[in-house]
Amino acid sequence: MWPVIVLFLIALGTISFTHYAYRWTNPKCKNGKLPPGSMGFPLIGETIQFLIPSYSLDTPLFIKTRVSRYGTLFKTSLAGKKMVITTDPEISNYIFMEEGKSVHLWYMDSFDNFLGESLINTTATAYIHKSLKNLLLNHVGTESLKDKLLPKLEVMAYQALHSWSTQPSVEIKECTATMIIEFVLKEQLGYDSTKSTNNLVKMLSEFIKGIINIPLNIPGTTFHRCMKNQKKVLELMKDILHERQNSSAEHRGDFLDQLIDDIEKEKFLSDEFAAVVMTALVFASFETISTALSVAMMFLTDQQSPLVVNQLLDEQQAIISRRENPNSQLTWQEYKSMTFTSQVINETLRMTNGIPGIVRKASKDVHINGYVIPKGWIIMVVQTAIHMNPDKFKDPLSFNPWRWNDIGSNIVGKSFIPFGGGIFWK
């Protein structure tokens, strides 16, 4: 009797798994046709292939292979999520313009867990995004940069460069990340990071490694290390917040002061939410900038880039020669006159592969190019592939700042998106 029952259970399990696997690999769409593509294995999808490291600034092989096979819009599954990926500038621009209509901001589960539900569950509303955007722009936007931050940034850079020059070697990404974190903590949160025993650079860097991984919180996994640091980072931010709230010192007028003022005015702002916003500010500041600076240093120290370095030096020396006092601080007018420097920055941002992609979630069925992206599916825009499109950027793997002399606004608007797109970025 028992052998029959065991065989029956095995057969039932096999049939159930086969049925589940078939439904996974062949998802249905009630209102149209899904984009072409493969869903990979059940649950893990194509995550393993996606996570294979790329040692090139070119479009990752995972993306290039599927674009050649399926086109610039294809379906897949990553980290347990059904997903559509696009490398097409027009489709990407359409997705960004649909923000708040048929799509909304979304974050990978790793991001949700790292920052906590207080931010993720509320930032879906345009009102809260607008409030946070205004808060940020008041302290890190163009006007703040022009009036307050530029001279401080110059001093920070000089001090860092002087310190590095006394060392036999430096790890550029780690050193620039530390420099930026210390600057943001001091200028925006009034906190001296040198007093902390926590290595914020290391803790926040672990987040990047865990962002696309399946959120499996067991010892030994990348996600587990990410979550171990999550509590430490948020607790540190709460300590900084509470210390300022309980301080009788004069109002500094920095980001943290305004955040505390807003806590008293806005219903969605709590101490926990404020700590999450502070964490997001520090993280967003250091990761993208340190990555871009590392890429810039790589190209500028390459033996094939002497013309770039020479023209940069000529531009900077010309600015100094026009000063009454050669040692005076950099002015906003001087900064805005750096035409070639701006081209070098744009070219660096074009070639910087900082994040896997920009993600949104379909809040209702999205009809595009004869296909349907079903409600609830994730949409990923791979800006690296857009920036490396040879139809838009000739010889895209070549570091060529002079290409920006002839690039029109139509290319910049849709094919150059280093900072993403959508209503939050306008």
Question: What's the topology here?
Answer:
Blueprint: H1 2-25, H2 47-50, H3 61-70, E1 73-78, E2 81-86, H4 89-97, E3 103-105, H5 109-115, H6 117-120, H7 126-140, H8 142-165, H9 172-189, H10 200-210, H11 222-245, H12 255-265, H13 271-300, H14 306-321, H15 332-336, H16 339-351, E4 358-362, E5 366-368, E6 371-373, E7 378-381, H17 383-387, H18 409-415
Helix pairs in contact: 5-11, 7-8, 9-13, 10-11, 11-13, 13-16, 14-16
Order of helical and strand elements: HHHEEHEHHHHHHHHHHHHEEEEHH
**Overall mean pLDDT:** 81
Tell me the fraction of residues in β-strands, as a range: 5-15%
Gyration radius, to the nearest Å?
24 Å
Helix content: 55-70%
Total beta strands:
7
Classify the secondary structure makeup into a structural class: alpha+beta
Largest sheet: 5 strands, mixed
The shape, in one word, is globular
Strand order of the largest sheet: 1-2-7-4-3
Low-confidence stretches: 118-124
